Amino acid sequence: MDFRFSPEEENFRQEVAAFLKKEGPKEWHKRKVSFFDMSGQENWIAVHRDMSRKLGAKGWLSLHWPKEYGGKELSPFYRLILREELAKYHCPGYHSLSVDFVAPAILLKGSDELKKRFLPGIASGEVMWCEGLSEPGHGSDLAAIETFAKEDGDFYVVNGQKIWTTYAHFADWMFLLARTDRNAERNYRGLTFFLVDMKTPGITVNPIINMAGHHDFNEVFLDDVRIPKENIVDAVNKGWYVAMSVLDNERTSDLGYAIAGTLLDDIIEGAKEMDMLNARNKIRMAELYTECEIARLTHYHVTWMLSQGKPLDYYAAICKLLGFEAIQHVAEFGLEVFKNYGILSDHSPLAPLYGRISSCYLRSFGHSMEAGTSEMDRDVIAQRGMGLPRLR
Amino acid sequence: MDFGLNEQQEMMQTLAKDFLTAEYPDKVLKAMVKDELGYTPELWKKMAQTNLLGLSLPEEYGGVGDFLDLVVVLEEMGRVCYLGPYFSTVVLGGSLIASAGSNEQKQKYLPGIAAGKTIFTLALTESLNDYTTSGVKLKATAQGDSYILNGKKIFVTDVQTANYAVCAARTRKGITLFIVDLTIAGITVNPYQTAAGDKQGEIIFKDVKVLAEDILGEVDNGWDYIVKTLQKANVARCAEMVGMAAQALELALDYAKERNAFGHPIGAFQSIQHRFADMKMDIDGARFLMYQAAWKINESLDAAKETAMAKAFVSQACKRVMHSAHQIFGAIGFTEDHILHYYTKRARAYEFSFGGPDEQLAKLVDIVV
Q1: Which of A1, A3, A378 sits opposite B5 (nearest CB)?
Q2: For residue B263, which of A141, A327, B72, B119 sits 20 to 30 Å off, Cα-Cα?
């Protein structure tokens, strides 16, 4: 048992902190922009892309990849440290959809050719990805998706619709789950995982604005979109397993606890300045501090399991649930601390913390839905983790 | 970063599990709760022979292992809802003497503790709201080579069985610790009747004469040892509560898999499954916090914050798990015959010992806000 980082890991943390202080967007640091609140910032896509390239140039987007594909083969704790520091510095540029969702899937299930084609662009921070999983009517029940890919010579021709496609409006590529067999015995056995160039004719992206007023989501229409067969990850009708590995990565990638913890620190600092802390919310603050600590240790535990090559199993679901619910609870607390000021618009000059209280609170409604709802996570924990039977 | 148990800890875990499974079945627990003393000398002797009583004490005085080993064993004790003067003797008395005692005192008491001949406790609490120096009012007045103790200690664990108590008393310029033989003149022990059957009581000191050689640590400087001991005590209670909660979860899980309603095991219903998921997360989180605090204590690092977080959360999480287990068991878990209420009651008693969530959160506010 040891709850310390190694000296090498501590050195890496120092290195990242020094780099971010020098190269991170100062304005974002000052405004304390949260990872999930980036799209509220003007010109954010350019800033995000710029930082992504800088992180890529340091080799920090492929820290634990095999050396063969440009990685450093470091333990997953390095990635965690990088993301903790990014959260602390309120720094964008870590496009987890590329780095932590699709890259591990390609590494795990992709052909050598796919690895050579796609990993360098992700490692350099140049190419950004979006995720084509959910459809209208099929979110939690993902295996029932209807978007269909029909074989046609060396291609598959795709027709259908995806929704809640975060960042599709600027992504270069999309990973797409589509049905290739409508007669499969079990619906999840008829799915295939494709890599799609967003410039392919037939793709239409329409914005969906969330209740915080920000543009993250989109709906994506696919009309006779032709995808070459070599862009299939693993094999035809094996896409479900690729998608599941993506989801497990997704559930352990974004450090909910670090985002929540940074927000909590910011709230306390702002509340002290405005003299808004009372006895009741001091106690609540201590509880939230503890909640973030548990989410942190849970994430460290999962990262340790990864570093030992142990299967994550349902721990990925626990990790996501605790981290993301911690953000919700902290955001809710922020509103309660700042009261009337907290619920001012994020554009109001009177809004505390540059308007982040209301915008983080409103954005946080999505946290118990994205990457699997909290209800689905609890199903996974109970069924996969504790062996409780499924009701059919 | 390493979340695994080492070989020694795994060995202690197996040893404790095997020992307690054999020696502490439900019927022993039920008998001990009813029993006036809550322990049998026979079992105590066996625990000594199994090396459990010397855990975390220095090797030269018959001890073995460190605080993390002790915590691993306490978690197993929680699983069987063990009742007996183990916590009082090893976690409170033993560790205080090991950390503050002179060589003579260590030689006099520690081998006896490890061999199962001496039972210790700590006489500290006088006010439940005040675990600071100001809470200690019991007076020790110097008189020649001795001190005269007058006052009252409440909620002393295992007063029924303890041979000695370490007593925190107010001296001229601070707090001084005394090792008090509980059979000497002027001491009155009044056992409490507790809902959980755990053994506690009060000690009244009336002109109790203690020799200066029985001072533990330095005159007026006893409080620092108490602070460290309170941290150990709270983390140890957390370890027991984690074990208790884990066992309650396991019992409820077995039940939910076999108890049928509407043609399905009740564990197939989502309302029950989500309860279980929450219980599982509560226990995992509790265990992480507990081990982090225990590890810090074991490494002699400052563990004030980690201990406060652990005790505040673990006791609340343990309560939630017990309440959920009751709901899952339904009416059968509400009966006196059922084992579950032994865990529920004890969990609540441990929650409040040495400062409950209110006190811990207040401490945490002082540290982090």
Answers
A1: A1
A2: A141
From residue A227, alpha-carbon distances to A109, A158, A257, B208 in Å are 18, 8, 38, 91
- A170 and B CB contact within 8 Å: no
Range A130-240 has CATH code 2.40.110.10: yes
Residue type, A249: N
For residue A194, the surrounding DSSP H or E stretch is strand A191-197
Ramachandran bin of A167, using left for φ above 0, alpha for ψ from -120 to 50, beta for the remaining angles: left
Residues of A in contact with B282 (CB under 8 A): none
How far apart are alpha carbons B296 and B306 in whole angstroms?
Answer: 8
pLDDT over 80 at A158, yes or no: yes
Angle at B278 between CA B273 and CA B279, to 5 degrees: 95
CA distance B247 to B144: 54
Give dist(CA A170, CA A374) in Å, integer: 28
DSSP secondary structure letter of residue A100: I
All structural domains of chain A with their residue ranges: 7-94, 130-240, 255-386
Contact state of B257 with A389 under an 8 Å Cβ cutoff: yes
| Selected residue of A287, A290, A324, A337 to mutate for chain B interface (largest B Cβ count, 10 A) | A290
The string of pLDDT tens digits covering residues A270-291 is: 999 999 999 999 999 999 999 9
Please determine, looking at this structure, whether the domain spanning A7-94 carries the CATH number 3.40.50.300.
no
**pLDDT value at A371 more than 90:** no
Chain A / chain B CB contacts < 8 angstroms: 125
pLDDT band at B106, cuts 50/70/90?
very high
The residues facing A194 across adjacent strands are A176, A232
Burial class (CB in 10 A: 0-12, 13-18, 19+), B35: middle
Quick check: A193 and A234 in contact, CB under 8 A?
A: yes
ipTM: 0.94
3-class state of residue B64 by DSSP: strand
Distance of CA B334 to the CA centre of its chain: 26
Contact indicator for A271, A284 with CB cutoff of 8 Å = no
CB A293 within 8 A of CB A323: no
User: Is A266 touching B (CB cutoff 8 A)?
Assistant: no
* Alpha-carbon distances, residue B30 vs A66, A177, B196, B198, B342 (angstroms): 57, 58, 11, 11, 8
Q: How far is residue B299 CA from its own chain's centroid?
A: 20
Instruction: Determine whether the interchain pair B309/A303 forms a contact, defined as Cβ–Cβ distance below 8 Å.
Output: no
Domains defined along chain B, listed by start? 7-117 (1.10.540.10), 121-221 (2.40.110.10), 224-368 (1.20.140.10)
| A371 Ramachandran zone, left/alpha/beta (phi>0; psi -120 to 50) | left
Q: Which residues on neighbouring strands pair with residue B198, listed in sequence order?
A: none
- Residues of chain A with C-beta less than 8 angstroms from the C-beta of B9: 1
Question: What is the amino acid identity at position B289?
Answer: L
Q: 């066992």: which residue's tokens?
A: B247
Closest chain B residue to A385, measured at CA: B277
Q: Do domains A130-240 and A255-386 have the same CATH topology?
A: no
Q: Which residue has tokens 């922020």?
A: A334
pLDDT band at B83 (very low <50, low <70, confident <90, very high): very high
User: What's the pLDDT tens digit per position in A15-27?
Assistant: 999 999 999 999 9
Q: What's this model's pTM, rounded to 2 decimal places? A: 0.95
Share of chain B above pLDDT 70, in %: 100
**Cβ contact (<8 Å) for A389 and B5?**
no
> What tokens were used for A248?
């497990």
Largest CA distance in chain A: 70
CATH of domain A255-386: 1.20.140.10
Instruction: State the average pLDDT over residues B195-219.
Output: 97
Residue A21 makes CB contacts below 8 A (sequence gap 6+) with A89
